[in-house]
Specification:
- This protein is mainly β.
- The chain is built from eight helices and 16 strands.
- It has helices spanning about 1-20, 35-40, 145-150, 195, 260-265, 300-305, 310-315, 365-370; strands spanning about 70-85, 95-100, 105-115, 120-135, 155-170, 175-190, 220-235, 240-245, 250, 270-280, 285-295, 335-345, 350-360, 380-390, 395-410, 415-435.
- A 14-stranded antiparallel barrel has the order 1-3-4-5-6-7-8-10-11-12-13-14-15-16.
Length: about 425
């Protein structure tokens, strides 16, 4: 069996490195969960591992899933709109409203675990971590110039993580795990030349409003970090606890956008940590609950404040876009709560449902820049199932609906008023082969 496993592992590594991921998300810009089974339960996975993708939630959990290969895809449908100035409530220098185009995206997911012996397991997964994408027309940041207003404005961020994992059963009840987390991402921005004309970028200028700021095509970055985890079983395995911590994934810089993101184009994946509990309420029903904390404050390009009632760069040149203290999206750290139920209806069917809540990380006065990335949704409702036609094969489906949420503010610098809103749908399908 091990030569076959080695071949599959090699193939998984090659696929993970070769396949681009179009990732979009609902907890800030993080995915609500990893794998269709987890998403069907609101994203839980710290204490309740169900497939090889669970390594992205808690590496210790793979000791519970055996040897398997999971292949899936996600069909993602975010619906976003933004308005500033008159169309957001009052007259201002900028005036505009637009719905974002490109409402459907597809991304792959894959993973594999191998139980080396009774105690040691290895795994690899390829998961979309998150992303942001908008395409608005007209360009509401056009400064009233028709040649800019008639263009599109928006951003496109895609992130993929590849955790390479080892987990070990310390004793009958406890397991620990560690992952080397490889990261890849790409980014582009369009229609932001007015930021250069207005003098808030450290690299752009009226004579060259694109330089290091916008319309540079896609740029790519790679990096690495780590994740640690623990899983413990108690009360005759009726209660499972879990805990995990992930460092930042330290990424290389987007050099083409060194005048947009702080620290010369830096955009690391935030550190995060989580705890979870899973309770076998009956022989057929498991209830799981996770609490996750995402540390956006550790990523200056995401956390540094952008325009609010005033423009920081107008009084402090050190906050020009692209500098170490440069302006950002103003996001705060986010706490996410995930609750899920799995019910083994019969030997072939598992039914799932869940709820996921995370307050928007966007402060009330930071709406202006976040028209480009309106990550406003907070409440997520999920359902799903697994059908097992045989002991070695599973088909899993999940559906997530993120209820619409609107954020508005007035008294903002230059635009006066701004409104952003968003709702989302997420369809996930996976095939699993257990061996």
């Amino acid at each position: 069996m091990r030569p076959l496993v080695k071949s599959l592992l090699s193939a998984s590594v090659a696929a993970a490195c070769a396949v681009p991921v179009m990732a979009h998300a609902t907890n800030g810009y993080f995915m609500p969960g990893y794998g269709a089974a987890a998403v069907g339960m609101g994203g839980v996975g710290v204490a309740f591992a169900q497939d090889s993708m669970s390594a992205a939630a808690n590496p210790a959990g793979i000791v519970d899933v055996g040897s398997r290969v999971d292949l899936g895809f996600v069909l993602f449908n975010p619906v976003r709109s933004a308005a500033i100035g008159k169309n957001a409530g009052q007259n201002a220098t900028f005036n505009g409203y637009a719905d974002s185009a490109n409402r459907w995206y597809m991304m792959p997911a894959a993973g594999m675990t191998m139980a080396w012996d009774d105690r040691l397991s290895f795994g690899i997964a390829m998961v979309g971590n998150g992303g942001m994408n908008t395409t608005y027309k007209p360009n509401f940041f056009g400064l009233g110039k028709s040649y800019i207003n008639n263009e599109t404005v928006g951003v496109d961020l895609m992130q993929m993580l590849v955790p390479i994992t080892a987990a070990y059963k310390v004793d009958e009840h406890n397991a620990i795990g560690a992952s080397l987390v490889l990261g890849a991402q790409r980014f582009s921005a369009r229609g932001l030349r007015s930021f250069g004309l207005f003098g808030i970028s450290s690299t752009a200028s009226p004579s060259n409003p694109y330089e290091g700021l916008t319309d540079q095509g896609h740029d790519s970055a790679i990096g690495a970090g780590f994740r640690l985890g623990w899983r413990g079983k108690f009360m005759n395995d009726r209660v499972t606890l879990g805990a995990t911590y992930a460092s930042k994934v330290y990424m290389s810089r987007f050099s083409k956008y060194r005048g947009l993101f702080a620290e010369g184009g830096s955009f690391d994946v935030p550190a995060n940590y989580a705890v979870g509990i899973a309770v076998k309420a009956t022989p057929a029903m498991t209830v799981a609950f996770d609490v996750e904390r995402i540390l956006y404050s550790g990523v200056p390009s995401v956390h540094h404040r952008g325009p609010g009632a005033s423009l920081p760069a107008s009084t402090d040149p050190s906050t020009l876009l692209g500098l170490p203290n440069g302006m950002g999206f103003g996001w705060t750290d986010q706490t996410v709560y995930k609750l899920g139920v799995a019910y083994q209806y019969d030997p072939k069917w598992v039914l799932r449902a869940g709820y996921n809540y995370g307050a928007s990380p966007i402060p009330g006065d930071q709406v202006t820049f976040n028209t480009l990335a309106p990550a406003t949704v907070e409440r997520h409702y999920t359902v799903g199932f697994t059908y097992s036609p045989s002991k070695s094969n599973d088909i899993t489906f999940a559906y997530l609906h993120a209820a619409g949420n609107t954020q508005s503010a007035c008294g903002l610098f230059l635009v006066n008023c701004a409104t952003i809103k968003m709702h989302q749908n997420d369809f996930e399908l996976a095939y699993s082969w257990k061996f």
